[in-house]
Amino acid sequence: MNGPRGVLLACLLSLLTFASGVAGRQAVRFEVSVTAPDRSAGGDVEDASLTGALAQALIDVGLPALRASDYAAPCGDGCVGVLVQRLADQRFLIEVRASAEAVRAELELGPASPFDVAHALAIQVEMLADRLLQRRKLRARRARPKTADAATPGAASC
After folding, report:
1. Torsion sign over Cα 83, 86, 87, 90
2. Are 49 and 4 in contact (CB under 8 A)?
3. Distance between CA 149 and CA 73 in Å, rounded?
4. Low-confidence residues of the chain: pLDDT under 70
5. Full-model pTM
6. Total number of domains in the chain
7. Which of 31, 56, 105, 138 is most buried (CB neighbours < 10 A)?
8. How far is CA 144 from the centre of its chain?
């Protein structure tokens, strides 16, 4: 199948196939917020329906997610913040944040149903979260001090 529908189908199938990535490595909670420009208010407002659909798409693949507005506590260590900004009709800026670190990507889709949009965004969120969590894991590994045995000359080796 070619065209936007084929791409969305392929993305959805890859999400279902590789969904264990983030969830299998680390227990995290996703707090989701989608905003869209509101010309009348002169800023951005939450797109509640797309926020809910994206949270549900993440839940469907086994990732604990909820709308950021539904959770009172701030997003802490066990949390990944997801902010999606609708830049144009089918163009989005996706930011995935954990603590002070963030990764971003733009996604432009062709004509698609709200279901397809939510699932394409979920795929991007999962890929960005994987990249962010891998980067944090690598940084933590580098920050660990080396063991004393390895640095001691003449240490016994088996």
Report:
1. positive
2. no
3. 43
4. 1-28, 38-42, 70-77, 146-158
5. 0.69
6. 1
7. 31
8. 26
